Amino acid sequence: MWGRVRVGRIYGLAPEECPLPIYTKLPPIVVLCALACAACSAADDTAPVALRDAHAAGPALDLVGRAEFEGTYQRRVADLLDGRSETYDVLVSGATSVRLEIPDTLADEFVRGATYRVGGRALDEGTLEVQDVELVASAPQPAIDPEKRPARRIAWIQVYWDGKAGISKEEAKLKLFTGDKSTNAYYQQVSFGEDRLAGDVFGWFQIPDPQGNPDAIATYAQQALEDYGVPLWQYRQFMYYFPFDSGFGWAGLANLGSPDNPAENSWYNGASGCVVLAQELAHNYGLVHSNSYSCVDENDQWTPYSDNCEESEYGDPYDPMGSGCGHMNVFQKGAMGWLEGCNSVTATASGTFNLVPMELPCNGIQALRLPIEGTPNYYYLEYRQPIGFDSLYSGVLVHVARNYGGTNPKILDMNDGPGAFMQAGDSYDDHLGRVSFSVLETNDTHAVIEVTFPNGGSGAPTCIDGTEPPMEAGNYGSLECLSEPVGPDDSPPTVTITYPNDGDVIPPGTDFTITTEVSDDRGVTDARLYVNGEPFYLDIEEPFEWDVTNIPEGTYEFGVVVRDGVNWVPSDPVTIQVGIVEGTTGGATTGDVPGTTGGTESGTSGDETSGGETDGSGQTSADDGCSCRGTSPRSGLASWAFLLLALGERQRRRRRRRPRAA
Predict the structure, then answer these.
(1) Residue whose C-alpha is closest to residue 448's, from 497, 399, 396
(2) CA 97, CA 312: separation in Å to the nearest integer?
(3) What is the structure's pLDDT at 70?
(4) pTM of the full predicted structure?
(5) CA angle at residue 643 from 625 to 602, to 5 degrees?
(6) E strand or H helix that includes residue 275
(7) DSSP letter assigned to residue 221
(8) Which domains does the chain possess?
(9) DSSP 3-state helix, strand, coil percentages of the chain (rounded to 5)?
(10) Confidence band (pLDDT; 50, 70, 90) for 592?
(11) Regarding beta strands 344-346 and 367-371, do their DSSP bridges make them parallel or antiparallel, or are they unpaired?
């Protein structure tokens, strides 16, 4: 079989510098070798030639008068440097974007991730007042009734255009994925183990000056990652970090998505604190900011809530959707789908309720909702204890918000003093007499809340799943909770190759499947196959297995490295003999799977100074040496060729079943 392959412009190699002609007819084995050598021959901080030579896109398309534009619709949240935020609509086409002013009459026409052709009047450079809209392509659809969410696969890409500055890749890995206080550890704890992050850190990559355009950054960064040899399909979200540039006007920026169909992109303008990392990802999942109310009564005196309130964006000091690094408030947890069963209870009649700590996995009430008559809003009550990421907080907090999701919850100042907490003995009466509540007790295990509606109200309390909460200790709500929050992941996974068996002798030309058995207390995020000691193929979905077709003679050693997002561990190697090679003990050179017992990930991918080290994932740096072996069917390269042909098609089929939205 012969192949026709375009070679050249691979990380700085011009066609005339490439060891092969621009178009060549070679056996696939030789072509694979040539591509591998070309990709490994350049430094990782050099942008692809195509990018270096490209004209950097401006902030948006230059529009004049009547204009039309086609692109993918996104809604964005920018966290501005002056402490405000801005939410706006855009159409994105590659590195170019146009802001949209959408009239109310057309607002329902737009769906995130769909492609539209719009026409209208240019308000200024880069902004279009939409007058007509045509759907070009529908948005990818998420799975119906998805199973429990798999790990959220994320690539953190560090880029620069003037000079490198900011956190190192090692710091980024600790902040995002592996540290005890990482964003990954945070999401695991606040979600009660429902959500976790798994990913890799890449860079630094030099890109053309984006001239203030975040879409240019995304385009250049993803192109650099692909040219570096990393398939984009391995990741669901991309975080772009670059040295601070005041020209952007914001510290963090993100596209808005939903929990089960997250948006893809977020940007970090030299910012990497606990708030911005958790917040921009949460915007990708559809959350908006946690604000605060400062209210006065008819005498212009402080009161927790009234018809005269001033809203402060980012005003919740405990929540990263506001300005803190504690647990997200219960409204945000409900919007993410982390509250289940009777974790959220709506009361419409007087009664007493057990409110259990919102930091622990519990079967009891963690969000007590009281409807505010005549409005679409509820009072949301939550109980915080000094546990985990909430180590400094204790007491009952109250927010006002609509039903879960899509709106800003507002925290109320319940005591006109430092902090907004209610403690045992504190009471609140709605200013219009619609409901009142008191904190009767605060214990390590729970608080007791007494709720009073005018004339007693009506109806039984209702859990989020439609059931009625049980009674315990004379109050509504179970007290059943785990004793500890979800902590850092310090238990490594396990992996065993179940077929073939070590020492098997297999006839040449045999078809078979390499199968594994894996386990982890929180789930294995990916597995990489090693062939003769070399990292070969990454799989991100169970079952972790690889089809082998028409295997040639030789000796082959297989190994598998699995990760759980924090820890990695290798399997015991399995060596097989295919046929009998006269005068030898096998043509392929065998090697060991990196490491012997595994460990915690501390390295990064794409490190220009790593000298080819691996972090256990099998992703090596651009400085890693490439060994272009011969084309003998007994060589290790021959085994790579037949595996690549078989596995590539299998992986493409698998990816087609997983639609994505931008």
Answers:
(1) 396
(2) 30
(3) 93
(4) 0.78
(5) 45
(6) helix 274-284
(7) H
(8) 3-42 (no CATH), 43-274 (2.40.50.140), 291-476 (no CATH), 494-655 (2.60.40.10)
(9) 15, 35, 50
(10) very low
(11) parallel
